[in-house]
């Protein structure tokens, strides 16, 4: 494992111009942008998807909005890193994230606005929500413009983020949804901040999802194995991030990437316990169960896979056919 260090991209127009030039020289035909709130979110919700598309030759970019400074520290010998002690958890988690992304094969990673620009807001209802440095308190236009820079540079056809509830209601997940959608709208307007690059329209926007039937299967397996509770609850209805199956539009079935997802989760050792629900489910149902990730289409047109029993999409790029070098400012 590499030494943990600060990673990310500095802010400044010289850097932006240089990175645009470098990216243009190696731009793949298909490009995916994932917008996440904290280190470990990329592995938890989209790890298998990211690895799947990297292996398929897609250009995959991950934007992380904060360094996760207020996360819970699950490793006793690293407890001193917590925000109420040395407040160095965010710095440490940058290293964990770098290791996880390397496992998933993602080579293009950015912290929104540069590392340290936005601070973790803490769980909903905590005093940290009101910290003026927090992502939750960030000016929406300023934060969106930080993402517009990335969208116009990378020119993704597909963007993945959270639903408006932020999945389970974390303020940073909610803000990530707002910023991602606002940035996608602004990036498509040629007259908005032309200094940030030529306009670009993201063709499809997805929200991560966990369908009821999938979670019920996991809960039954854990209970049958000895009464273990999934995420500490007894009923699916008690989980705030569950969606009904008919709300799901898309599934990425990447069972061959499940082991990489598990390894990426292990890289976030301050946040993810080896005896947690992800590893328990993998042991009971097989690692492939974590290779299946679900989405709701929030922008664009769904193109169902006629071979799927529920008529879900099985490719985030379904319906998108862009020749390399398509003009900026319009749909591919």
Layout of secondary structure:
Elements: H1 13-25, E1 31-36, H2 41-55, E2 59-64, H3 89-104, E3 108-111, H4 140-154, E4 158-161, H5 166-169, H6 171-187, E5 204-211, H7 212-224, E6 242-243, E7 250-253, H8 258-267, H9 277-285, E8 292-299
Parallel strand pairs: 1-2, 1-4, 2-3, 4-5, 5-6
Antiparallel strand pairs: 5-8, 7-8
Helix pairs in contact: 2-3, 2-8, 3-8, 4-6
Describe this structure in words.
This protein is globular. Strands 1, 2, 3, 4, 5, 6, 7 and 8 form an 8-stranded mixed sheet that branches. It has helices spanning 13-25, 41-55, 89-104, 140-154, 166-169, 171-187, 212-224, 258-267, 277-285, and strands spanning 31-36, 59-64, 108-111, 158-161, 204-211, 242-243, 250-253, 292-299. It has one domain (13-209, 247-299): LmbE-like (Rossmann fold). By secondary structure, it is an alpha/beta fold. Helix 2 runs parallel beside helix 3 (89-104), helix 3 (89-104) runs antiparallel to helix 8 and helix 4 crosses helix 6. The N and C termini lie far apart (39 Å).
């Amino acid at each position: 494992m590499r030494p943990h260090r600060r990673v990310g991209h500095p802010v400044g127009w010289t850097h932006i111009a240089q990175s645009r030039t470098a990216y243009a020289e190696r731009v793949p035909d298909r490009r995916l942008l994932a917008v996440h709130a904290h280190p470990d979110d990329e592995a938890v919700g989209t790890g298998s998807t990211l690895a799947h598309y990297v292996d398929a030759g897609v250009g995959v970019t991950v934007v992380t909005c904060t360094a996760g400074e207020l996360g819970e520290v699950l490793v006793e010998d690293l407890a001193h890193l917590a925000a109420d002690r040395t407040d160095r958890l965010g710095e440490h988690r940058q290293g964990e994230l770098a290791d996880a992304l390397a496992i998933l094969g993602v080579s293009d990673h950015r912290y929104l606005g540069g590392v340290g620009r936005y601070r973790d807001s803490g769980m909903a209802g905590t005093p940290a929500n009101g910290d003026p440095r927090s992502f939750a308190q960030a000016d929406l236009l300023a934060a969106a413009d930080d993402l517009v820079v990335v969208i116009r540079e990378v020119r993704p056809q597909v963007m993945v983020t959270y639903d408006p509830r932020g999945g389970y209601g974390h303020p940073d997940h909610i803000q990530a949804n707002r910023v991602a959608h606002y940035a996608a709208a602004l990036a498509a307007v040629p007259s908005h901040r032309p200094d940030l690059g030529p306009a670009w329209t993201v063709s499809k926007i997805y929200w991560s999802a966990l369908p009821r039937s999938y979670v019920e299967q996991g809960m039954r397996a854990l209970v049958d194995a000895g009464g273990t509770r999934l995420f500490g609850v007894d009923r699916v209805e008690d989980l705030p991030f569950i969606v009904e199956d008919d709300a799901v539009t898309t599934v990425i079935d990447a069972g061959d990437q499940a082991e990489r997802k598990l390894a990426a989760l292990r890289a976030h050792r301050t946040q993810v316990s080896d005896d947690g629900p992800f590893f328990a489910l993998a042991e009971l149902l097989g690692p492939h169960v974590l290779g299946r990730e679900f989405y709701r289409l929030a922008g664009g047109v769904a193109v169902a896979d006629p071979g799927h029993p529920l008529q879900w999409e099985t490719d985030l790029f379904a319906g998108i056919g862009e020749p390399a070098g398509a003009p900026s400012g319009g749909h591919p």
